[in-house]
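SEQUENCE-TO-STRUCTURE ENTRY
===========================
What this section holds: a protein sequence and its matching fold, both as plain text.
Question of interest: how does this chain fold, as expressed in backbone structure tokens?
***
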Amino acid sequence: MRKDTLGLIQEAMDFMEENLKSEIEISEMSKRAGYSEYHFCQLFQMATGLSVKQYMVCRRLKHGLYEISKGAKKQEVAFSYGFDTYAGFYKAFYREYGMSPSEYLKVYRPSFPYRVNLLQEGKVMISKKFMEKLLAHWGMEQSPVTNVVYEGSNQVSENEFQVGEDFVLKVSGLPGGLKRHMEIAGKLDKVGLQASVPVATKTGELLVQEGEVYAVLCKRVQGTKMSGREMFTACDTKAAYRFGTLIGKLHLALANLDAGLFAENRLHDTVQDWALPTAQKKINLLQELVAEYKNRFCDVYDKLPKQIIHRNMNLSYVYVNGEEMVGVTDFELSEYSIRLFDVCYAATGILSENFTDNDETMEKWLLLFENIVKGYDEVMKLTEEEKQALPYVVFSIQLICVAYFADKEEFAELAKVNEKMLTRLMEHKEELLYCE
């Protein structure tokens, strides 16, 4: 990101910091920065890793917690930072930190939340010395540490590190995602699915804090990572079917989790309010399909079953032993949403990794898509509304991809690929409907 753009985002962050106890309008900040509201929100998330609203809430929670730790009354703190009740503050805090304010203060001692300076700090880096300090909690400071690389994209993870042969260290600036992972991993372990179960420190803790960094050490899932490229190249419909059944088994295990720990994502609202308008400015979409999408998806959305989902259901997070799928990892992004999202996201991820703009590619992928859906339906019976909504959930995911990449120069090629994918998918709308 260019330095002048980063400076404008910094100004917005400073404005928020000075007005945390006042009403803050995103439209006002975007106007001050000279961007449309949609473009401003995307630039902000790219710079900070958080949405504008999420960043604002996090800063208010940090300041509120600090004031409570100094003796301020909880109710008054909640009101002063814009929450209607302390219950609202409590719920938001629990979602981000994975525990109540009182529980947090029994374990951690909050420091004053000095403002973030993007121009000075940039991305958080974990030094070798700091890594050793973290691992010392488990008595593993001398263990070799290597980067975790995501298959398919070859991107290096910024918050995961392999420790020795058998462990993975997860780090974050907020403990909420780590707590979500810990809760889900424990749940899956009880039903026979491996999921990077956390390991206790020398003093019996599962989650540790060093300064502003939280960390959890997990057992590495034993097995081989699945490959979307191999599945696509071989057009392995049996593996696709097994993948669908795994998502179904995962959802069965997640169905009874406490939703209070997880944020709700209304996919329909995200697309209607941001992704679709943004995509329409960048590419030519058939207006008949756009009108149909708006009407049909709007009608059916609230009837779709919702529960805790993985949210980032990619084959690179799935482990196999021979042909048996034995584990799933990386639940930091898990949320409360339509369960169909995981199924469609898993399938579109395979297409994205292997996309070529021709009929042969689409024919192979449609076979894999069909079998992923059938495998899922074998375990978690699809409702009639879900069967009809499949094309619209696929379009929703692709519209979000197009909108996300459209305004970023460094992702120009990805934007073009995703535009072509969306066009192809819309051409095959009828084939995305569920077939018995």
Observations:
- The first strand starts at residue 145 and ends at 149.
- The beta strands are 145-149, 156-163, 167-172, 208-210, 213-219, 224-225, 306-309, 318-321, 324-328, 335-338.
- The radius of gyration is 22 Å.
- The first helix runs from residue 3 to 18.
